[in-house]
Amino acid sequence: MPDQSDDGGYLRARERLLAGSRITTLRERYDLFPYVLISGVAFLIAVVYFYPLYRTFVFAFTDSTFQERGEFVGLQHFAEIFNNGFLEVLVTTAYWTFGAVSLAMLLGMGGALLMNRDFWGRKYFMGMILAPWAMPLAIAGFLWLTMFIGEYGFINKVILDPIPGYEPISFLGHDHALKSVIVARVWKAAPFALIIYYARLKAIPDHYYDAAKIDGAGKWAQFRYITLPELRQVSVIIVIVLTVWTTLIFDIVYVMTGGGPAGQTRILPVDIYVTMFGEASPALASAKAVTAVFFLSIVTVIYWKVGDL
Amino acid sequence: MATQSNLNDRDASTLDRVRARLTPDEMTSLTSVVALWTLRIAFLLFITVPLYNAFRMSLTPLNELANPVLFPRHFHVENYVAAFDYGALQFVINSLAYATAVTILNLIVSVPAAYALSRYDFLGKNLFMFTLLFTQMFAAIVIVPGLFILANELGLRNTYVGFLLPMTAITLALSVWLLKGFFDSIGIEIEEAARIDGCSRLQALRQVIIPMSAPGVMTAGIFTFITGYSNFVLPLILFSDQGRYPIAVGIYTLLGGLNTPYSMMMAMTVIGIVPIMVIYATMQRYIVEGLTSGGVKA
Question: Is the domain of B45 the same as that of B88?
Fold first, then answer.
């Protein structure tokens, strides 16, 4: 996160100086030492990401089987997946991602604003509110499965049942399933957005608000002209990371619905898995994975340009 | 009817009396305090009710789950007994063992790499960093088809090596980023002093920099541990022997439509949550620090 405070360029100058000294004292010409240091990470990434990825591309673009490499077939597999409802999968994925990310960000920002004021017990509040972040995704799925299921679910049984004239809602059935899995994702992602927003709010200097008060700005004007602009940059980063990580979530949806009912929650990761292991079709699963990689590459480039990492 | 309006009158007069005693400013701050607390508690309920519900269901016999009960009537520990009989302890031990192994493997390779990225300029550094970011964007699911094919070819399915290597790899990017940030914040002068005193470069790293960045190594280790404990899809595709399943996959095997033993499943979920919550509660300082330094998966 960039340092917003104006230090008259002193820090930057010092950094440049340090970078210079780094080169003179530690770096020797044609030095292999840094390559030795990164070799472990480079090896693991090559073996676990790049070779399997290469195999995925081969499966996606050729007529291969597990036994032998086949002929190059161009975009045939891609044509096949799009003829078999892949577009619907992408639309479902977009709905899922947009719904979950926007809600998680709203709740995260709202929650951070609520936590920003000092109040009794804030430390314990924060401790409990951030807990879902540490929860395994699959377990988040199990927890919300038992909140929603028809026969025993907490919402139907405990919250709605005492209301006179209530009709049990089939949360994981038709029309509601996608919304229900989104709720589970929001539960897991909102605390993440919250803590990032919270840290950013804490970094806004108090004298900004003091100055605004002297100028006669009300609460809303302070929020609109100080808080929101200060949160803009961090919002961009949260949008990007949550978008990527939500799009590629498998666990929550797979344990809650398995992609059903009737494909209503069949988002891209679930679709890849079911195509690979349910329908035993590595070629089509690979074509779908390649589509995901294509999407990832675009977002990574955007992230690389936007975030100052 | 009369009592009703009397009640309203009395309420109104109470409100008037409160109003008379408070200035308009105090009145607004009272409403805002009430509103803020309502919202805070609503948020807290959204977060904690699913956890409470798991606890509630885990103490209720399956045949009583159909009753709308907010508090468990009796402590039906049989669900926990059934969960342990099913292998809950084995699953949790597996998860903890995988998480430990992944954390150790991860730190062995990511500490030197992060150090190199922090201290040296070298050809291909930018490419390497971009590649790391790219792998961090990947969820495991994207490489699952390729990884499954590879593991099959090499005969690494249902082996610990075939699981731990990919599991370590997917946690690398995050710890390298975190550690690089910590190394960046340590001034280079200290190292120079160590070098002048006759340390080799490796000694300076091992004896000076790593001890100084212990909180950073700790943070990276905690994040890796939590990820290692949590993974679901890799063990699901790579292990066929149920004795090797981690807790998330172990619970998943209980799901069976209408025949799902939800009470026992929630007992197992609670058992699976306990270790992660203990780590979370004791290590919170490091977690918050790491989360706010950016680039952590949610």
Answer: no
